[in-house]
Structures are given as structure tokens and as C-alpha cells.
User: Which sequence fits this backbone?
């Protein structure tokens, strides 16, 4: 089907969509780049002036930047780890024939339908609250001291909440992948003397590798820009303990009204995201071929 | 080593009884073919022997020992699947080595056995490829290689050739027969193709709706089918069945005569008919003849003839080649 002629036609046919998307992206991007070179503060409107790279200098030398960078990485990696491991485990469990399979599957998928703000608030107020939360009650019931999740381990708590939200997505993808696994391969492995663990390790896991790659790629893109969960739980605090790059940009431009600085931060975030994307593609994109 | 016995084995899927009580003996070193129409329970039976399917009741004995509840790997049988079931992410070498690795064989041992299996199956130059980069026939051989290295008590094949084209199928048929001769291991082979059954088997088990219709050597089944099902299933082209006056003349419910057991004449004979279609195969010609009462008859004639549509011919059955069947479609003796 890939004759030269059909390829040219195909290019031609998709060009309107490509141009639309390009325009959609180019306009805000160039405005952001433009703002990032201005001294542009909303508290003093009309006084914008060209200041070159100063915004970038401030943003990149701010100690908060490095903390936010580390937090971003920690958040992304932590959530990836939890969702991929948990997702594979859950998918394998859900793939077993059992009673009430349909309902259990729907229950597992449910968190995905809850808005991030809502789920974060539910976790914050109903589960992790050190006074009224369910965990606090449990701890008290066991005679332990209640743990102040967002005070003691803010980033970890957010990691956990976000992982809880994305777990269904990963599980769903892994489950579909599992269902496309040829049952005869498993049976062949049984005949070949592979016990449960070996069947999982040698047959199921390699079969899932492509799905795992897809989940990691997609999740990374979303996880780099986590915002709502931080805003409604910790506001980035205490200090900068749970501030990621996205939240830092928000704090800069909307809490300090520094549009120029915020834009510079945004551009830095874009560059970082692209570095990560290239890195990921290099590292695991190979998995997607053949 | 590989004697397999089924004692009153049954299988149900829920309420559906797929295999009613079945008894079967497979001797050491035999090449046994299960043959029957689609859905008759061949695969189910094979999978019960392999241990991939639970037996509802009855016993499976391997070398005299009860293996009914032994898990597949412990039964010492190897299976070749219809889809080959190769591990797509492993090289051919690792595919073949997998059962050995699972058995924790030593490195040199694995290397030695994989090499020898690859030699037997002409796979030596493909060892570092993945299954996806092989042709159907090569994949088939890898699947067989994976079975060979385990040195099993018996090989189980489930329609292993059905995904191959006709020419390759003939080749692989010979290769499997050759393999059986050189290894001398018991082989159970499932197919719905009676040609494979006739050409490869020491013993054919004809199945119909989960029950054994007849067990015997290919020529036994060809010469003395016990009922119309077996008679119609074994042999190609199919045996002709005649009812009505043709059968009544010989006081039977139905009579059967194979196309190759009819002689042809343009002058005189037992039955008169006209040729509908003549299929010229070169070596043989199959004539589809219409007798009186619209009865259809297939006749084998020699290849070089110029008979064709509309010609009137006379057909005579050879002496002692007519099979008589009663109302229950069973062979009537004597
Ligand atoms: N898991 C199952 N659940 C319910 N019924 C089944 C199951 N597996 C097989 N059957 C039924 O059992 C019967 C025998 O199936 P089996 O696969 O053994 O047939 P087969 O002789 O191998 O046919 P084919 O030549 O088409 O492969 C069929 O009627 C099939 O519908
Ligand atoms: Mg079958």
C-alpha cells in the first residue's frame, strides 16, 4: 500500500490537521518565549521592558528550582514504579477466572473516573487527615500515634495519591495486553516444566514489555505536569518539600504575579520535558519496534 | 518407554459431555493417530493425556502408573501445538533450550542437546533468529525441536500441519514419520485429515462425537470398516453408499463400494449410468456418475481416457469388495 503515490496523497490529506496542531502549539509557545525575555509583573502593568536572559538566570539559580527538579523526578519515578508494579500485579490477578470478575474489574477501573482534585481532597480529608482521617483512627485504634502524612512525608503522600489515580489506567492496559497472550504459549510453558513464577517471568512479562513501555511513556508525560494534587493538598509545602517544576512555575507567575519569570520557568520545563522524552524514546522506544 | 492407557476416561464441560467413558491403549513406540471430524473431541482427549485439561472421571496411566492428577511437566510428555506456541521474544536457540533450562540442565548439556536437535531438524543456521523471522515450516520444526530435547516418553501433536501449505505438509509428514522411525518414541497425532492418518499411523483411532468408532491399522480400517462412519471417513475419495433398490437387491439397508473397486465398461455391466463430471488428475480420473433414481457414484478410472460429460457407461463392483450395512449403519457380517 505504501506506493509513492499513496504516500504523497496521505501526506496531503493529513496536512490540514498538522498545520492546525502546529498553529495551536506555535502561538502560545512563541508568546511564552516572548514573555520570558520581558520584565513583566502584573503588579506594575505597562512597565514591561526587554531584559534578555535575566528571568532565566533568576529561575535557574533559585535554590527552589533544584529542589523542585528533584521533587519532579522523585514524583515521576515513584508513581511509575508503583503503577507499573501494581498494575502488572493487579492485571495478572484480574486475568484469573474468578467469581464476579465483571464487577471487580469495574471497581478497579473506578478511580480513573474521579477528578484529580476530588480524589486528592478525599485522600487528604478523609484518609490522611491526622485528626479526622481514617488512617488516624486506625492508628489510634491500634494504640499508635496518628501520622501527619502531609506534614511528615508530603511528597510520598502525593506520590501515593497520584499512583492510586493512575493505577487503573496501567492495569487496564496490562489486562488487555494479557488477554492477547496466546493461551497455548502458557500451556506450552507448562508442558516445558515452567512453574508459576517462571511462566510469569519468561512468558508473561516479556509479552507485557511493550504495554509497559507504552504506559511508561504516556505516564511520564502526564506525571511531569502534576499540579492539582499538589495545589489541593500541600500547596507545595512545607517549604518547597512538595513543589515540582509545574507548581513552581505557577507559584512564580500567579502567586508572585511575575509573568516573565513564570514564562522562563515554563520554557525551562518544556526543555526538560523534551530531554526526558528523547531520553525515554532512546532507552525504551526500541521496544515498540518490531 | 511410553505406554499410555485410558481407563473409563470421561470429560464434561459443565453439562456438556464431550467424551463419554473411553478406554484406549497405546503401546510403546506406536504412532497413533486420532482422526475424526471437527469438534469430535480429539484435542480435548489429547489435552487430557497431556494434563492440560482435567479428567472428569476415569484414569490416565502412563507406563502403568496413574498420572491422572500429575501436573503436565511431570508426565514426561511433549506437545506440539497447532499454533506452534513458540515464545516470540526468544531466539530459536532459547526456545529449544527452554524446557532444559526449566529442568535446570547444565550449560554444556543444553548446548549439546540443542545442537543435536537443530541438526536433526535442519535448524542449525536459524538458531539466532526469532520465531517471527521464520517460515511456517521452520517454525513447525522449532516446535518439534523444543519437544525433542526433553526426550519425552511420548510426543503429542495437535494438528501440527494444518497451518502449512499443501506441498510443505507432504514434506513435514514425511519428516515426522522419519523422526518416529529414528527415535522410536511413542507418538500421538491428532488430525482431521484422513490422508495424514492413513499415511503416518501404525494405529488409527477414529473418533466421532467423543466416542471411539474403531481402532486399527490403516489397512484394517480401509478393508474392514465396522460401520458407515468409518467407511465414509477413511479413504479418498469417499466410499460410495447406495440405498434403495441397490441395497435391497443384496438384502442390506445400505451398501458401500469404494471408487477404486468399480470396473468400467462402455458395453455392459451391473449398473448403467451417465457421467456428470470427469475430474482428470493425470494418473487417475474420477468420474461422477449418475445412476438411476439420481443415485450418485464416484468411480476411479485410469488417467488416460477420453470419457466426458454425458457419456453413458456401465459400472461393475469387484467381487467381495461390497460392504453391507444394516439399519444401524453397522457392518453386516457374512
Ligand atoms: N473449554 C471448553 N468449554 C466448553 N466446551 C468446550 C471447551 N473446549 C472444547 N469444547 C467442546 O468440546 C468439543 C470437542 O472439542 P475439541 O476441541 O476437542 O474438538 P476437536 O476434535 O479438536 O475439533 P477440531 O478438529 O475442530 O480441532 C466441541 O464440541 C467443543 O465445542
Ligand atoms: Mg482440535
Assistant:
Amino acid at each position: 500500500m505504501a506506493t509513492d503515490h499513496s504516500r504523497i496523497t496521505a501526506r496531503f490529506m493529513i496536512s490540514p490537521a498538522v498545520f492546525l496542531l502546529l498553529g495551536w502549539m506555535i502561538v502560545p509557545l512563541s508568546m511564552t518565549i516572548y514573555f520570558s525575555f520581558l520584565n513583566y509583573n502584573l503588579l506594575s502593568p505597562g512597565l514591561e521592558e526587554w531584559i534578555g536572559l535575566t528571568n532565566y538566570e533568576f529561575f535557574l539559580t533559585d535554590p527552589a528550582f533544584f529542589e523542585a527538579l528533584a521533587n519532579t523526578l522523585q514524583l515521576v519515578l515513584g508513581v511509575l514504579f508503583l503503577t507499573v508494579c501494581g498494575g502488572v500485579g493487579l492485571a495478572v490477578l484480574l486475568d484469573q477466572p474468578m467469581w464476579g470478575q465483571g464487577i471487580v474489574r469495574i471497581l478497579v477501573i473506578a478511580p480513573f473516573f474521579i477528578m484529580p482534585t476530588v480524589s486528592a481532597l478525599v485522600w487528604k480529608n478523609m484518609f490522611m487527615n491526622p485528626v479526622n482521617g481514617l488512617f488516624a483512627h486506625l492508628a489510634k485504634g491500634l494504640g499508635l500515634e496518628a501520622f501527619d502524612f502531609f506534614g511528615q512525608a508530603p511528597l510520598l503522600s502525593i506520590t501515593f495519591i497520584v499512583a492510586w489515580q493512575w493505577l487503573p489506567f496501567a492495569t487496564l492496559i496490562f489486562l488487555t495486553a494479557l488477554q492477547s497472550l496466546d493461551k497455548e504459549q502458557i500451556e506450552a510453558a507448562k508442558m516445558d516444566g515452567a512453574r508459576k513464577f517462571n511462566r510469569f517471568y519468561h512468558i508473561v512479562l516479556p509479552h507485557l514489555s511493550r504495554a509497559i513501555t507504552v504506559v511508561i511513556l504516556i505516564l511520564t508525560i502526564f506525571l511531569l505536569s502534576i499540579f492539582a494534587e499538589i495545589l489541593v493538598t500541600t500547596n507545595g509545602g512545607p517549604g518547597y518539600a512538595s513543589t515540582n517544576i509545574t507548581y513552581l512555575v505557577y507559584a512564580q507567575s500567579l502567586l508572585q504575579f511575575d509573568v516573565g519569570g513564570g514564562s522562563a520557568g515554563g520554557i525551562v520545563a518544556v526543555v526538560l520535558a523534551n530531554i526526558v522524552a528523547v531520553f525515554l524514546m532512546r532507552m525504551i522506544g526500541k521496544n515498540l519496534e518490531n | 518407554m511410553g505406554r499410555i492407557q485410558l481407563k473409563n476416561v470421561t470429560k464434561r464441560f459443565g453439562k456438556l459431555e464431550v467424551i463419554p467413558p473411553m478406554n484406549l491403549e497405546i503401546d510403546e513406540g506406536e504412532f497413533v493417530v486420532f482422526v475424526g471430524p471437527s469438534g469430535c473431541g480429539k484435542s480435548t482427549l489429547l489435552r487430557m493425556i497431556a494434563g492440560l485439561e482435567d479428567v472428569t472421571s476415569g484414569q490416565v496411566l502412563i507406563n502403568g502408573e496413574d498420572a491422572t492428577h500429575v501436573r503436565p511437566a511431570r508426565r514426561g510428555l511433549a506437545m506440539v501445538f497447532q499454533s506452534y506456541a513458540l515464545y516470540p521474544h526468544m531466539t530459536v536457540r532459547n526456545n529449544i533450550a527452554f524446557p532444559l533450562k526449566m529442568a535446570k540442565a547444565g550449560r554444556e548439556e543444553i548446548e549439546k542437546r540443542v545442537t543435536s536437535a537443530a541438526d536433526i531438524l535442519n535448524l542449525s543456521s536459524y538458531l539466532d533468529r526469532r520465531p517471527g523471522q521464520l517460515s511456517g515450516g521452520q517454525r513447525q520444526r522449532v516446535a518439534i525441536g523444543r519437544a525433542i530435547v526433553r526426550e519425552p516418553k511420548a510426543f503429542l501433536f495437535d494438528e501440527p500441519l494444518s497451518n502449512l501449505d499443501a506441498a510443505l505438509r507432504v514434506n513435514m509428514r514425511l519428516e515426522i514419520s522419519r523422526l518416529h522411525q529414528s527415535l522410536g518414541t511413542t507418538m500421538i497425532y491428532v488430525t482431521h485429515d484422513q490422508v495424514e492418518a492413513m499415511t503416518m499411523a501404525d494405529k488409527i483411532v477414529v473418533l466421532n462425537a467423543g466416542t471411539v468408532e474403531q481402532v486399527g491399522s490403516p489397512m484394517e480400517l480401509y478393508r474392514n470398516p465396522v460401520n458407515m462412519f468409518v467407511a465414509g471417513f477413511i479413504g479418498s475419495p469417499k466410499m460410495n453408499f447406495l440405498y434403495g433398490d441397490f441395497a435391497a437387491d443384496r438384502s442390506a439397508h445400505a451398501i458401500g463400494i469404494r471408487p477404486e473397486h468399480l470396473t468400467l465398461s462402455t458395453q455392459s455391466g451391473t449398473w448403467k449410468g451417465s457421467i456428470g463430471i470427469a475430474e482428470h488428475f493425470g494418473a487417475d480420473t474420477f468420474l461422477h456418475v449418475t445412476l438411476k433414481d439420481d443415485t450418485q457414484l464416484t468411480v476411479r478410472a485410469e488417467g488416460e481416457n477420453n470419457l466426458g460429460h454425458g457419456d453413458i457407461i456401465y459400472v461393475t463392483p469387484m467381487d467381495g469388495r461390497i460392504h453391507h450395512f444394516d439399519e444401524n449403519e453397522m457392518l453386516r457380517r457374512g
Observations:
- Strands of chain A lie at 38-39, 49-50.
